[in-house]
């Protein structure tokens, strides 16, 4: 497992994700992040910061409807204010969070699009490797 803080930005400098204050942990294996991102992290030392450019053809997978989910409105805490277009963090049962854009909202349900905003665009990342640890044995 690796823990990284990173910022992703387009060629025009616009940030599409900023995980510098909320670092993420993931297995340093293919499929979790774009291959060039994973390759860069594999070659880094803890504390090192590196910039990486990922071409549009190797960035993120194509948009799929499987990444659009419906959530019953009753399962969303009443104190959370929602507006179509908002990006919020959803949490998996294992505690890992991921960004989701609210695309539809009514009294009964909220529809979130988990497809990445950066699909089919060249991406730049500034990555800092914070920690490396072994996966727990099963």
From TrEMBL:
<dbReference type="GO" id="GO:0005737">
    <property type="term" value="C:cytoplasm"/>
</dbReference>
<dbReference type="Pfam" id="PF00254">
    <property type="entry name" value="FKBP_C"/>
</dbReference>
<protein>
    <recommendedName>
        <fullName>Peptidyl-prolyl cis-trans isomerase</fullName>
        <ecNumber>5.2.1.8</ecNumber>
    </recommendedName>
</protein>
<keyword id="KW-0143">Chaperone</keyword>
<dbReference type="GO" id="GO:0003755">
    <property type="term" value="F:peptidyl-prolyl cis-trans isomerase activity"/>
</dbReference>
<dbReference type="GO" id="GO:0042026">
    <property type="term" value="P:protein refolding"/>
</dbReference>
<comment type="similarity">
    <text>Belongs to the FKBP-type PPIase family.</text>
</comment>
<keyword id="KW-0963">Cytoplasm</keyword>
<keyword id="KW-0413">Isomerase</keyword>
<dbReference type="InterPro" id="IPR001179">
    <property type="entry name" value="PPIase_FKBP_dom"/>
</dbReference>
<feature type="domain" description="PPIase FKBP-type">
    <location>
        <begin position="1"/>
        <end position="82"/>
    </location>
</feature>
<comment type="function">
    <text>Also involved in hydrogenase metallocenter assembly, probably by participating in the nickel insertion step. This function in hydrogenase biosynthesis requires chaperone activity and the presence of the metal-binding domain, but not PPIase activity.</text>
</comment>
<dbReference type="InterPro" id="IPR046357">
    <property type="entry name" value="PPIase_dom_sf"/>
</dbReference>
<keyword id="KW-0697">Rotamase</keyword>
